[in-house]
Amino acid sequence: MARPGVTYYDISRAAEAVKAQGSEPTIDRVREQLGTGSKSTIAPLLKQWRNNVELNIEEPDTGLPSDLISAVKSLRDRIQQASEEAVEQAKQDYQSRVQTLERTLADDQEKLSEALDREQTLKQQITDLEANSRKLNGELNGLASRFAVTESERNALKARAQELKETVSELKDENRTVRDHFEHYQHRMAEDRQLERDQFQSQLRQLQSQVESLTKQLTHSQAEKENYRIRYESAQDQAEKVTYENQELGHRLESLSSQIKKLELDCGSKNKKISDFEINTSNFNAEVQGLKEQLTRKGVTLERAETDLHEIREYAGRLEAENKEIAEEKAVLQGRLEQLQASLGLIE
What we know:
Layout: H1 8-20, H2 27-34, H3 39-54, H4 66-150, H5 154-157, H6 165-207, H7 212-252, H8 257-347
Helix pairs in contact: 1-2, 1-3, 2-3, 4-7, 4-8, 6-7, 6-8
């Protein structure tokens, strides 16, 4: 914006003086002639003077003080320049804020994409666990078939039942321990699932209005998780059924110590598989919790982005109101200037 101390009248007088000296009026020469003023202030006024010179526009001899006419023109030029600079600055600020917001949203979308990829990986792990569960069920069914074969030998084994009662008692204790372990694990998993469902539903309610697409994806994941839980409980029921069948078949395998040892080895192998399955389930729950935390952070980031966007819109509204006021003032001054010019024309 031109400073009040340097006007178009001053610039025109200095430029004419430089031209009278036989030199081309430049910004530096005019500034040297004035002894004051910045280049950014002198440049637009000198350009206006050159345009007026090219159009052969001269100061009218109206009988009014030339300082008054120069002051009015300078005021008009300053208002116009201030208005253009304010609009340009507002546009630059708005574009800068919008670019920052777009970069933030792009980063959030990239993080969301990574979270979706992670979810796909978890789904693949669930599929692998289900395959392992089916394999375990197949092995249990094979074991049940072998137990069924031994049913035909029951009558021949009754005579030696007394000798192996003590061994059978130990097996019963082990089976009870395994069953207690299954019940405890099932109870603990039910509590963890209930707590996770409550927390997850609370987070979904908070994010539902902002990230509807994420809510749909999470709902789909929850349905898959529930399906997996049902399959897992079914596998547990089958395992308990097999445990019960082990107790029944223990009476029929009392005389075959070699086969009992083999069954003990089989039970140990299956317990190891069950332990591995528990570890995989725990890892899956930890990864699901991590995904929930990432979604919470994304929700906070989106809220901040919306707040910034709201502030930008308010700031743009204020700038538009200020520009409107400046335009109104400019129109009033333009009208006054036109009236002054009209009156000057009448005087002539």
